[in-house]
Amino acid sequence: MSEVSLKDMANAIRALSMDAIQKANSGHPGMPMGMADVATVLWTKFLKFDARAPWWADRDRFVLSAGHGSMLLYSLLYLTGFEQATIDEIRNFRQLGSRMAGHPEYGHLDGVEVTTGPLGTGLATAVGMALAERMQNARYGDDLVDHYTWVIAGDGCLMEGVSHEAIDLAGHLKLNRLIVLWDNNAITIDGATSVATSMDQHKRFEAAGWKVLSCDGHDHASIEAALAEAKNSDRPVLVDCKTIIGFGAPNKQGTEATHGAPLGEDEVKAAREQLGWPYPPFEVPKNILNAWREAGARGAAEREAWEQRLNASPKKEAFLRDLESKATPDLMNALNDFKKQLAEEKPKVATRKASQMALEVIIGAQENVVGGSADLTHSNLTIVKGMEPVKPGDYSGRYIHYGIREFEMGCAMNGIALHKGFLNYGGTFLIFSDFMRGAIRLAALQGLPVTYVFTHDSIGLGEDGPTHQPVEILAALRAIPNMRVIRPADAVETAEAWAVALESESTPTALALSRQGLPAMRTEHTDENLVAKGAYVLREPDGGRDVTILATGSEVEIAMNAADMLAEKGVKAAVVSMPCWELFEEQADDYKAAVLGDAPRVAVEAAVEQGWRKWIGEAGRFIGMHSFGASGPGGELYKHFGITAENVAKAAEELLGKA
Length: 659
Ligand SMILES: Cc1ncc(C[n+]2csc(CCOP(=O)(O)OP(=O)(O)O)c2C)c(N)n1
Ligand SMILES: [Mg+2]
Hints:
Distance between the termini: 89 Å
Strand order of the largest sheet: 10-9-11-12-14-13
Oligomer: single chain
Shape: elongated
Number of strands: 20
Number of helices: 26
Bound molecules: thiamine diphosphate, magnesium ion
């Protein structure tokens, strides 16, 4: 063992990376070869983990924000002995079905904490993990929660706009367990970073309240000194690691040629000579592998001691329950009781207000539900009594002021969900969900059950005008796979929507909520959650249907009024409330057929038509938006754009050949 040097260990990462990328004929060798030394020091001397217990709750989190350098992470997981990270998987890098996907994907391979690849988002997600760690620590103490979040970020991560939001929030909250190792190789795809940036990153991070350290990223002593110092900080830490991209490839290192293409057989051979690595591809000599395996077992004793502390703790049960990050039966019962009350009281409220009323029940019923807003707390109505703000140095609160940082909020929400210990939601205007779309997509891709409280969901918001009035956003969100978009029509549907969101285990939920007041549509209580069926018949005429009107959210009222008008003319109209297309699609065919019926269909939604043809067919009629909105009172806008009961009724009559 003693004869194995850190240099040998780092070279094992370099060799595995260049060989796997060469074999796959695809991948990014520059980053793993450049950061191999930093990663070796981190994983052998600092990172708290136990390769045999990949999901130990108090492990340090390691986030490869520079996700293109996936072979760095895969090499580390194999070398330290993660069971799933076999040498065969490394040989199979980037092939269909391999756990070792092109970029690290959460859920494919133990040890991958987060899906990365979209630059900057790993760093932004890590901020949420580091925040969750402090929040969990505030609840359970140092004995049970005491870990760091380490991030490797490249030049690209620091160039992306989301990094600004991330470092600002982390600096403000004084997340001192967050340590970012910057792979400062001054190269990106287009060449030297100087072609596109003149940023002084030290000053930038310092201005955001971070501590900044530096090291020579190829000098193990220098790295070790910097990491040791980084662990003792009252602020988050940036470690500027000066590195050479593709280190070890004699003709290509230091250039963008190593960034994103196999080195080529000749250069791989030359690198073997340069590095003093005479072994065949995919072969790591026993003594070097053993040294790595020892590093992978280094944390076992610490984990066992932690388990003993947990077993002895009076908080054990609560800790483990929170860790599940699931809604409790008590919470779901409380929500159902609340629904019963709403059906009796029939409040006329905006669904954003109904959401706040539901949140009062939720927050009261389960301690580990936390939420926040991107500076629209009193518009989104995301805060309720009993929620104290999370503050720098005091993380006992349940409400997170994300600031005007939607993208970071979305990424931090993902980080909180990935960390585990909490259920979490965040709010902004529906229109600004676009600013966080990259995070929403990653939530859906990773299967994270976060909840978005998107208020001001249509032209109904009125005077703020077309900059604030979403028309295309529902369609855009519905286009994301593994995503539920729920647009409830009244207070009961809103409570049901929250129940769906809270019970979701692997799908994010976007609640689209109105600014304007809406009358009660559901005036009879059922224990059954009708929103969970996606769509249901709200009004069925006696003696069969002449026409079916489909609507969501605030337009359900319009559909009901249209049905009344049609009834006066002897036309029998059914009304289907359709709060969630995705859930409806999951229902049995006969249920769907019964809800949709055989009669001609009209749909009404204050948004663009895209997607509605699936439900109304080629012959159906759509009443909605065909342009951006306009500034004016909401009620007038509905008339101006023709989204009225009269027009719905007229469309129905035209369909029936009666107009
Ligand atoms: C949001 C986003 N934009 C663009 C890309 C495509 N891309 C992948 S790596 C890269 C350059 C990254 O440079 P750097 O972080 O310095 O990595 P290095 O070349 O040093 O490995 C780009 C533009 C991406 N993955 N994500
Ligand atoms: Mg770079």
